[in-house]
């Protein structure tokens, strides 16, 4: 049973989560295949903050390898978890994970199309080299989400089986197209590997990529926080939400666009990291109930915490080699999904 | 709730504590990390094998490398994993991935030699020269280059006199009763090697390594079939034998004449033992060229 | 006044509401009766703004309903649906608080918590305010939704000049007989405070006891309308529902009794 937290005390949940996140980020900075003392880490950060021209030997490892990755893990974790919570509100079902219902596949398809098609049409160079992949990925995500929503809505209600089956179909098509592209059409260099698109990786994230991701994710996350009240009303059904004064068509589009943009940008740069959007909201709901005004900000932080832990493990468990992060998130997320599926069995009758 | 996160935090900390110390060993001589089979073999051939402190999974020769820590698969390298070995020099090839990690390594201050993608004799020459210059073993590098070239020239001279160039299919994994094999198409290292050995790649309607069904194999009807054999990746000698007995393949020239050979997977690394590999393949082809 | 003027609506070729007019007046309770499939719920959708009529207009204080923003409309009318699809485990209090959603940030002087508290007391759910919605029985859930609707049209805050409307679609569904009366007493009480109440009912006697006026629908059309005394007669009931009915009087209250018809 969730705890009932009075509205005034909710702020403390956020403070506690933020504290855990910051502590973990600090810990993650000190964890890695290379042994670096806390003194050296402090020195690197001090040098960077004072724009000192003298830099100690481990500066690149902290500043160019670990820190961008940690910031990216926080951003991507928060983005995926909030996107998951938004979609679960929209679909009125806790199973609506961006990876499971096909949004990630849609984005990956968009990204692959962007990588292959645009250059073949002569559209390369300049800002396009940097922007084409994320833009195509986001477009793919938004398109697929609208499609899934239309296909799984039967008579004003969300048909859960249709939603999951549409996801299976989109994932299958996406997997096939990406497989075809990776093995037959483009060079491996351009397209990354098949495992990148299916399992994801934060390996080798550079500051400019973190910057571009933040440009989309930070406004998306902030806008999401404003959607708590209307999404609460949405859980009663679209008509009920309208009766409660929610501008349903507008909110619906806003939720689809924001969540799909956030998933799209993360897929473009970090591939298909699964289950964060399922696990983070579920933990928060189990602990504090389904109120989106609490759920959305708490999800942002718990998602960041989860992905930060997963990525720190990914880069250290098999050190000096690297583990695919999707393997870790799936090991935690898969059983979660099964558990939710069992709880939702009644609704799944086709 | 907070308990959950605390637990996660502690687990991740303990997981990590034991692993962070892998690289703690003091040495005075320079430390080299090699990534890629060709890169590793070049460094060892130039006599710097005792300075190598870590390799990747695709490095399988010489046997000493199995004792060294692995920095993972060449297509999924962690930059910090490489740097954590505190290398004074990294020798690798352009095949290193993922692209983001490659880009990042190129920005780091550690000296790295990027050998060209090892798939031609010229690429091997360039790699040998660059690494030789860096290690102060240029003379030795030239010697190896000349040996390799001489050896290849010799085989090529013989195959010039063959009545015909045998057609060859190379399988990364042989077709079996349960599925298609993966054959080397145009532009692959196996294709280049077949060419150097005096044969002709029978598969030239696709690029890279692609699945090839038994039926297409019957259609192509090669004179010789090679299967890459290795303990870690690639086929086992048993699977090569099993392939010969597949129904339908009895009529294929290579099977009928017994020209199905397992060849070491290492032959494809395009390292300093390239001459050896070309000779081995050439010897097999010679049987069918008469 | 919430008015429907000669409205029609159809699903595909089937006309479900056919040239219906009715008015929900502030301070009055209007009952809507009719057999299954007569178009009661569809008429409600037109009144609540959930659907737009194909012909005719629905107006609120003379202004077309569609000229209102969803939130402005929600501050003035609340709808209790027949069924709800809430699948997330809110507490009862959180569900009732949802009724205050359109009022948030409008008038800070209103004590939101007090309104929620009173609405829960009136729907007789105060004793399980902290329980989880999904653990409740059908009747209890119905009362929770009623409390949510009461909270939404609660008189006395921000805009006293503007009339408010409560639309109840079969509010007595799943309720025991005592709570059926509680529910309609609350509706009645709200009416005395100036709220206009429209209520779909199946029980003629509840309509006779609590409603001022009524509309009897049959096949999408109005078969009878007016005060309950004039419109809800044994003849109309027999005619519309095809059952034999007779009116008796008990302690000054009129009661409609339906009789089994021997085959």
Condensed summary:
With 290 residues, chain B is α/β, with parallel strands linked by helices. Chain B is built from eleven helices and ten strands. Chain B starts with a helix and ends with a helix.
Offer a few descriptive terms.
heterotrimer; A: 350 residues; mainly alpha; ABC transporter involved in vitamin B12 uptake, BtuC; two-stranded antiparallel sheet; 74% helix; globular; C: 263 residues; alpha/beta; Rossmann fold; 6-stranded mixed β-sheet; 4-stranded antiparallel β-sheet; 9 helices; 12 strands; 31% helix; 29% strand; P-loop_NTPase (chain C)
Q: How does the SSE layout of this entry go?
A:
The complex is a heterotrimer of chains A (350), B (290) and C (263).
Chain A (H helix, E strand, L loop, with lengths): L9 H21 L7 H12 L9 H33 L11 H18 L6 H26 E2 L2 E2 L1 H26 L2 H4 L2 H6 L7 H19 L2 H7 L3 H6 L4 H23 L5 H13 L3 H25 L8 H19 L7
Chain B lengths: L1 H16 L14 E4 L1 H9 L6 E3 L24 H5 L5 E5 L5 H9 L4 E4 L5 H15 L2 H23 L6 E7 L7 E4 L4 H8 L3 E2 L7 E4 L1 H7 L3 E6 L7 H8 L8 H4 L3 E5 L9 H16 L1
Parallel strand pairs in B: 1-2, 1-3, 3-4, 5-7, 5-9, 9-10
Antiparallel strand pairs in B: 5-6, 6-8
Chain C lengths: L1 E10 L2 E11 L4 E5 L6 H9 L6 E6 L2 E2 L5 H5 L2 E4 L11 H6 L14 H11 L15 H15 L12 E5 L7 H16 L3 E5 L3 H7 L2 E6 L2 E7 H4 L2 H8 L2 E7 L2 E7 L4
Describe the structure.
The complex is a heterotrimer of chains A (350), B (290) and C (263). Chain A is mostly helical. Chain A has one domain: ABC transporter involved in vitamin B12 uptake, BtuC (Orthogonal Bundle), CATH 1.10.3470.10. Helix content of chain A is 74%, strand content 1%. Chain A contains 15 helices and 2 strands. In chain A, strands 1-2 form a two-stranded antiparallel sheet. The mean pLDDT of chain A is 88. With 290 residues, chain B is an alpha/beta fold. Chain B is 41% helix and 15% strand. In chain B, strands 5, 6, 7, 8, 9 and 10 form a 6-stranded mixed β-sheet that branches. A 4-stranded parallel β-sheet of chain B has the order 2-1-3-4, covered by helices on one side. In chain B, helix 5 runs antiparallel to helix 6 and helix 6 packs parallel to helix 11. The longest helix of chain B is centred in the middle third of the chain and has 23 residues. The radius of gyration of chain B is 22 Å and the shape is globular. Chain C is an alpha/beta fold and 263 residues long. Chain C has 9 helices and 12 strands. A 6-stranded mixed β-sheet of chain C has the order 6-7-8-3-9-10, with helices on both faces. Chain C has a 4-stranded antiparallel β-sheet with strand order 2-1-4-5, with helices on one face. In chain C, a hairpin with a 2-residue loop joins strand 1 and strand 2. In chain C, helix 4 packs across helix 5. The mean pLDDT of chain C is 89. The chains are: A mainly alpha (350), B alpha/beta (290), C alpha/beta (263). At the A-B interface, helix 1, helix 3, helix 13 and helix 14 of A face helix 1, helix 3 and helix 4 of B.
């Amino acid at each position: 049973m969730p705890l009932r937290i009075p509205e005034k005390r909710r702020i403390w949940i956020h403070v506690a989560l933020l504290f855990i996140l910051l502590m973990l980020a600090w810990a993650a900075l000190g964890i890695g295949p290379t042994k670096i003392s806390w003194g050296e880490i402090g020195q690197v950060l001090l040098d960077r903050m004072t724009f000192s021209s003298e830099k100690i030997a481990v500066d690149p490892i902290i500043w160019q390898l670990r820190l961008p990755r940690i910031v990216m893990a926080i951003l991507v974790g928060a983005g995926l978890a909030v996107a998951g919570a938004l979609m679960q509100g929209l679909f009125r079902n806790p199973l609506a994970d961006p990876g499971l219902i096909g949004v990630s596949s849609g984005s990956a398809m968009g990204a692959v199309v962007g990588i292959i098609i645009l250059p073949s049409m002569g559209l390369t160079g300049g800002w396009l080299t940097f922007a084409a992949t994320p833009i195509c990925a986001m477009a793919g995500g938004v398109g697929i989400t609208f499609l899934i929503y239309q296909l799984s809505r039967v008579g004003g209600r969300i048909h859960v089986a249709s939603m999951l089956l549409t996801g299976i179909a989109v994932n299958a098509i996406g997997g096939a197209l990406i497989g075809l592209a990776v093995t037959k059409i483009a060079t491996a260099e351009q397209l990354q590997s098949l495992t990148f698109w299916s399992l994801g990786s934060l390996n080798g994230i550079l500051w400019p990529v973190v910057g571009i991701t933040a440009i989309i994710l930070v406004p998306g996350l902030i806008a999401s926080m404003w959607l708590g009240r209307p999404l609460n009303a949405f859980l009663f059904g679209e008509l009920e939400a309208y009766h409660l004064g929610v501008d349903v068509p507008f909110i619906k589009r806003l939720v689809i666009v924001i969540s799909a943009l956030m998933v799209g940008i993360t897929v473009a740069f970090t591939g298909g990291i699964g289950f964060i959007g399922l696990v983070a909201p579920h933990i928060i709901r189990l602990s504090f109930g389904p109120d989106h005004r609490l759920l959305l900000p708490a999800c942002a932080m718990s998602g960041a915490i989860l992905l930060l832990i997963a990525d720190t493990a990914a880069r250290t468990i098999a050190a000096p080699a690297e583990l695919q992060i999707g393997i870790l998130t799936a090991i935690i997320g898969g059983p979660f999904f099964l558990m939710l599926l069992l709880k939702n069995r009644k609704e799944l009758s086709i | 709730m907070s308990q959950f996160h605390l637990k996660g935090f502690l687990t991740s900390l303990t997981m990590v504590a034991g692993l962070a110390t892998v690289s703690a060993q003091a040495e005075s001589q320079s430390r080299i990390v090699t990534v890629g089979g060709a890169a590793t073999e070049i460094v060892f051939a130039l006599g710097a094998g005792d300075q190598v402190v870590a390799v990747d999974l695709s490095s399988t020769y010489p046997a000493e490398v199995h004792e060294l820590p692995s920095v993972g698969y060449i297509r999924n390298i962690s930059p910090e994993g490489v740097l954590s070995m505190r290398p004074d020099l990294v020798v690798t090839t352009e095949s290193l991935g993922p692209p983001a990690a490659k880009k990042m390594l190129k920005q780091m201050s550690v000296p790295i030699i990027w050998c060209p993608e090892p798939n031609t004799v010229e690429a091997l020459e360039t790699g040998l020269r660059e690494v030789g210059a860096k290690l102060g073993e240029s003379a030795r590098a030239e010697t190896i280059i000349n040996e390799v070239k001489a050896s290849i020239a010799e085989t090529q001279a013989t195959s010039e006199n063959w009545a015909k160039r045998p057609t060859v299919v190379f399988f990364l994994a042989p077709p079996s009763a349960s599925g298609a094999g993966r054959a080397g198409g145009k532009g692959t290292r196996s294709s280049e090697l077949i060419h150097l050995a005096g044969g002709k790649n029978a598969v030239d309607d696709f690029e890279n390594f692609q699945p090839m069904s038994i039926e297409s194999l019957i259609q192509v009807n090669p004179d010789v079939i090679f299967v890459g054999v290795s303990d870690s990746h690639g086929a086992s000698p048993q699977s090569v034998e099993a392939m010969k007995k597949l129904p339908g393949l009895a009529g294929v020239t290579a099977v009928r004449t017994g020209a199905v050979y397992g060849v070491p997977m290492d032959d494809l690394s395009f390292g300093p033992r390239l001459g050896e590999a070309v000779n081995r393949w050439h010897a097999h082809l010679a049987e069918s060229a008469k | 006044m919430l008015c429907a003027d000669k409205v029609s609506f159809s699903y595909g070729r089937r006309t479900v509401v056919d040239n219906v007019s009715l008015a929900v007046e502030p301070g009055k309770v209007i009952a809507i009766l009719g057999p299954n499939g007569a178009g009661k719920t569809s008429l409600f959708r037109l009144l609540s703004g959930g659907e737009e009529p194909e012909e005719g207009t629905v107006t609120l204080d003379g202004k077309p309903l569609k000229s209102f923003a969803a939130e402005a409309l929600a501050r003035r009318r609340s709808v209790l649906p027949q069924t709800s699809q809430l699948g997330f485990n809110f507490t009862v209090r959180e569900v009732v608080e949802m009724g205050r959603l359109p009022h948030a940030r409008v008038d800070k002087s209103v004590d939101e918590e007090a309104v929620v508290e009173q609405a829960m007391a009136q729907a007789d759910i105060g004793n399980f305010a902290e329980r989880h919605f999904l653990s409740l029985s059908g009747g209890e859930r119905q009362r929770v939704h009623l409390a949510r609707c009461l909270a939404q049209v609660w008189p006395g805050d921000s805009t006293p000049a503007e009339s408010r409307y409560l639309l109840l679609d079969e509010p007595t569904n799943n309720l025991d007989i005592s709570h059926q009366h509680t529910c309609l007493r609350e509706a009645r009480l709200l009416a005395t405070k100036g709220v206009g109440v429209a209520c779909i009912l199946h029980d003629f006697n509840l309509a006779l006891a609590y409603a001022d006026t009524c509309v009897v629908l049959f096949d999408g059309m109005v078969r009878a309308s007016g005060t309950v005394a004039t419109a809800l007669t044994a003849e109309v009931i027999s005619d519309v529902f095809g059952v034999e009915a007779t009116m008796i009087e008990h302690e000054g209250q009129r009661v409609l009794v339906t009789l089994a018809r021997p085959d």
